[in-house]
Amino acid sequence: MEQVHLHPVSGRRLFWTIVLNSIITLAEFVAGTISGYLALTADAVHNLSDVAALILAWLGVKGSQLPATKRSTYGYKRIEVMTAFISAVALVVIALFIIWAAYRRYLNPVPITHPGLFLTVAAIGLVGNLSSVILLHREKDKSLNLKTAFLHMAYDTLSSVVVLIGGVLILYTGWVMIDTILSAAIALMIFWSSYLVIKEAVAILMEATPAAVGFDNVHKVIDAIPTVKGVHDLHIWSLSSYEIALSCHVCVDRTDVSHGPGIVAEINRLMREKFGIGHCTVQIECEECGRSSLLCGFNGELSKQP
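Structure (tokenized):
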């Protein structure tokens, strides 16, 4: 079974990505406004939303590193999940704005001017977005925030390629409708990337079992320990996008109760090495507590879920 490792996150690469994309956004806004190239303006709006998302991500990284308190006993690890969710929802709003602008441009086509300006800025945007992708590539698997930031930059790079190619096609064909089509395509890409982030963030906030872990796999590993006779009340959830917690009741023979600390240590080791679960709470029991299901609701009744 593939091992999962936890990684501390850093905001340094994120900070430089924010600076780089702020410059790109300003340049694209100016060039798009002067030339009338809506796709470039749409890409600038996309970049602007990404700058906001990157700032939220940076704040989320810093916030998630705050120490635990008596009131927030797990610390503030879910700040980065909440900020990722907010930025993804904001992207959906931005995408709707771009589609509306594209529709208006479809009804009233506008000629595109200053080709040298918008092509130069589009090329600069492409180089800048590629640089951002390189900066964040090594960080993308460390948290949902950094994964979100990386996805934004990857889609921005694709958008820049589309904008650059579209600009060249418009210059050679004179068909300005390409601008509208490309703007709508960029909006659809934004919708897709936002959906992926929102889906993962909601799963974490709803304390769903992480997809990369697998409930049944965890149960099999614990149940395979020779001294373990049964497992129930097994719960697995994410504290953040990169930290996982687990709690369960483990049944053993009465003669093995004295070995409880060793059993708990073994479960902790297996969970950490095989699944990257760093927070385990294991209760040792010498007989069934009256619950026959792996799952248990807080009201003491057995869950009906399979």
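The two ends are 24 Å apart (CA to CA). Residues 144-173 form the longest helix (30 residues).
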